[in-house]
Amino acid sequence: MGILHEDMVVISQAEKAGDPTVVTVNCPDKTGLGCDLCRVILLFGISICRGDVSTDGKWCYVVFWVVGKPETRWDLLTKRLLEVCPSHFTTSGIYYYRPENQQPKPLDVFLLKFWCSYEQEGLLHDTRELLHTKRRQDETINCLKAVLGNVLLGCEIELAESKVTACSQGSPYLPSVITEEMLSLERTNGRLKRPVASIPISITVDNNLSPSHTLVQIFCPDHKGLVYDIMRTLKDYDIQISYGRFYENTKGNCEVDLFIMQADGKKIVDPNKQDALCSRLRTELLCPLRVAVVNRGPDTELLVANPVELSGKGRPLVFYDISLALKDLSTRIFSAEIVRHMIRDREWEVYRFLLDEGVCPSAPKNKIEEGVRNILMGWE
């Protein structure tokens, strides 16, 4: 017998100011569940300060200690976390949940068009997968009206045609400064010729402490989405976590212990596989997003790139964070686009912003790059 569906996700509010809120998830397991949960938490702008994960390969028990915001909608967070939990009603006899047993439905892409009488900063994030319903479309349009007011001249939401979604793949051209930064991390085992190269990151692998699991220990400075970056890397490598714990110490560093195994249920004993995993983890923890400001003819262009999960999902809140950073820097946006590029064997989501310097000069390039990176990484 399973537990009640409503008990799969329980959120216990902090008893006093300053204490974290406790999020407990108890549900059937699947490879990549930790990544999916952390992605939802990141999408809500919530930070994880501590966590414990354990599973027997059938059921998973996860506890996150998180820090929210005054406007956090905890009831909605509960619903979104439930949506990524494998339902115990679909696992007969609580058999191990495998991705091939239930292929995810491809996400619909919608085209939002709106007109206003002058430039207005704003952003729409849809996480409910309900834009095909009139109720959700009306709610979205009303939100835009609330922000834009009388300057909103019109708004339409429709299912995007194939020619529109094809444009999301973007042109094959990217400035060398951004592609070189993407690839240099791969070539140098996660070491950049940038100030962030001084960030201390330690990743060790031990096969002696457990007869059936490989222990991966990580010590690194905290950043926004750190646990998500670890979990999505393991998910892409099809690695299962049997037990894991992580917490942030008083100095702002994170300590992570993960007992893992391959999809075949065996340890990772191949030195080449160990090196590949450690190198990828080091890269994603050192620089999960690439930021560059370049000249585009007489204009200035901001580029931000992040790797896409093998499931096809991009990193949450990137557009929001970039626009917030530019707003804080009093830098206006002339045009923006989000495209996807295949570089080597990885798909990247690339955000391109052409900055408007016609009204007033924008901030210096190094200040723009630093300001955008700081907000993306949670260092502001």
Class based on secondary structure composition and strand pairing: alpha+beta
H/E element sequence: EEHEEHEHEHHEEHEEHEEHEEH
What is the assembly state of the chains in this entry?
Answer: single chain
Shape: globular
Q: Could you tell me the number of beta strands?
A: 14
Question: Strand count, sense and closure of the main sheet?
Answer: 8 strands, antiparallel
Spans where pLDDT lies below 50 across 5 or more residues:
91-102, 118-126, 185-197
- The value of Rg in angstroms is 22 Å
Helix content: 25-40%
Helix count, per DSSP? 9
What's the N-to-C terminus distance? Answer: 47 Å
Share of residues in strands: 25-35%
Order of strands across the widest beta sheet? Answer: 1-2-4-3-9-10-8-7
Mean pLDDT: 80
Written account of the structure:
This protein is α+β, with helices and mostly antiparallel strands and 380 residues long. It contains nine helices and 14 strands. The protein has helices spanning 33-43, 74-84, 134-148, 162-167, 176-187, 226-236, 271-286, 318-328, 365-377, and strands at residues 9-12, 21-28, 47-55, 59-67, 110-116, 152-159, 202-206, 214-221, 240-248, 253-261, 290-296, 299-307, 332-343, 346-356. The protein has an eight-stranded antiparallel sheet with strand order 1-2-4-3-9-10-8-7, with helices on one face. Strands 11-12-14-13 form a four-stranded antiparallel sheet, with helices on both faces. A two-stranded antiparallel sheet has the order 5-6. A hairpin with a 4-residue loop joins β9 (240-248) and β10 (253-261). The protein starts with 8 loop residues before the first strand and ends with a helix. Mean pLDDT is 80; it is low at 91-102, 118-126 and 185-197.
